[in-house]
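Re-run requested by the PI after the first attempt was lost when the workstation crashed. Everything re-entered from the original request form. Ligand of interest: adenosine-5'-triphosphate.
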Amino acid sequence: MISIRGVVKSYPLPSGRCTAVAGIDLDIGTGEFVTVVGRSGSGKTTLLNLLAGIDTLSAGEITVAGTPVHGLGGSALASWRGRTIGLVFQFFQLLPTLTVAENVMLPMDLCGTRPSRGRRTRALELLDRMGIADQGGKLPSALSGGQQQRAAIARALANEPPVVLADEPTGNLDSATGDAVLELFRGLTRDGTTVVMVTHERDVSRFATRQVTLADGRIVDDRPTCAPAASGISSGVTVFGGTTAPEPAEQGRVS
Ligand SMILES: Nc1ncnc2c1ncn2[C@@H]1O[C@H](COP(=O)(O)OP(=O)(O)OP(=O)(O)O)[C@@H](O)[C@H]1O
């Protein structure tokens, strides 16, 4: 699903060049749940941004779902990203003036996926799957941090992307709510979605299938984890909404 070959990313600085990614080769298969860990400044976010085509390569090649990302630009890149990549961020990045349902509809609006009548239905289905069906009409600011991240994940899934890229998605959540997010990602992989997640937390091996460690822009470790088989989404289980993420724990989250 993802092929990374000889990837380098450097930034010009007044004092010289900063090499954030210093030569990475990596293959990630369909349905893998890969965590990318490493010290601050090791190049994790840069690598994720390169995968999403948010940043441009200095050297090398990246192919995602059969498309050479390095060969795309402008509207073709934006269209490809909208249909292929679901992005999840630490601070949710929901548009504050749109309702939660409208936020989830946004990727479909931008990419023209589904007839416009079907977009709201799809958004409400996704919110239901995330356990926040009753929050669709509210503005994001009315939701807890955990609920906002569920909404952001619903938005990321709107166009049924084969790849989800998440940058510290649990960094702003308490541990129970964060675990529920990780459980959700694990459930997605059962349906064949590939998940790559940057995290500072090393103790996520029970959710992910593989852990890649970066140092100074290079891979210094790449190993399978002992995560049990994925479950959840495809079996119809609501990952959130009280079954695996009890509300009392979420009330303690940072919002
Ligand atoms: N736009 C930029 N211009 C110049 N240098 C940059 C830029 N973006 C990142 N860097 C540098 O590249 C290196 C890698 O940064 P990156 O954000 O990828 O690391 P990270 O592992 O994600 O760090 P953290 O865990 O703190 O988020 C750092 O030295 C950073 O200062």
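Saved to the shared folder this time. Residues 11, 18, 20, 38, 40-46 surround adenosine-5'-triphosphate (CB under 6 Å).
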